[in-house]
Amino acid sequence: MMHQFFKNKRDGFTLVETLVAISIFTMSILALFSVLAKGISNTNYAKTKIIASYLGQEGIEYIRNMRDTFVLYNPSSSQAGWNDFNTKLANGSCQVANGCYFNADNLDYGDTTQPMIDITLTACGASCPPLSFDSSTGKYGYTGPDSDFVRKIQITQVGSPVNEVKVFSTIYWTQGSGNYSMVFSESLFNWME
């Protein structure tokens, strides 16, 4: 009879064993949620970094396009176009520490008089304005609600006479509690003679 008494005591879980099992299960679920949250955060950071890299490269591309338009389509000469390009950069205050920005929102690409020349370069002052995102077109510019991105263009003119322009396109953004930036650079030369 005594043997049955001890056998019945061993069957099933005690309250302590149940609490231990529940706490282990809960810790496992919390660890899983933590890993999922970190994965989502990393995915969002990667997406934002890709967008920032495209916007930084776009800054370089616009300045390169502007150079090509001035040099190729100047009625006088390619050297006069190069000089006009450098004057536009200097007048836009792109060579100072605060840099400049351009607004290409209102460009008319159907204009046969080379719309790239019509881009206005504006000094940033204390800081450049944030880029806006137009969800209907999927484009970044300065029309619509502000995005988390700010683009600053800086240039350094090299040589006397100037035969090289170093262009720096910096993208700044805030994500979570961190501030991030990426810098793209390229040297543009007067390649027409």
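The above is record 1. Record 2 follows with the same two-line structure.
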Amino acid sequence: MNRTQIVELQAHIGTEPDGFWGPLSMAACQKHLRALMPVPHPFPATSFLALRAHYGPPGVESALTNLDVSDLDIRYFGRPVNTVRIHRKLVASLGKVLTEIATGPHAGILHHYAGTYSNRNIRGGSTKSLHSWGAAIDLDPGTNGNRSHWPTRSQMPIGIMEAFAKRGWLSAGAFWHRDAMHFQATAPPP
């Protein structure tokens, strides 16, 4: 984002709009998104034990189901997507998020869907990715890369993060300041 966009973002999240994205802006953004999340929070912490207790073991395909998205104009490398594979506990939640996005000002981001379920480790790590539980989704990796700092290098709109936050999903861009394409159904860090 450019300086003008960062000033607009800062004003939106309730921090001083000075155009500098630093620790105060990061904290304000996290506070803003937490305030949108349901109470009590519907999803587990990110520890392996909490994830396993809530979702079961990673990589169990029988825990997944297909969410019908045929009417939301979602695309994967230009091809229409009719269903996304997601953990059965997340169907209603993700369905509401994607419907809100599809009917909002940033609907075009759904033309850059990059996947949900993938039984793999975290990139460069030895622990399982949230994608292994079918509890994560990636959107628009072309402008929101894994190592690109959000919002100074990545372009994920705050409106997308808010749509996910309202259903309890964590935005990696806002909480880790990178990997803004990634959203996961876990509680935010304490």
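The beta strands are 64-68, 75-76, 79-80, 83-87, 136-138, 170-171, 182-184.
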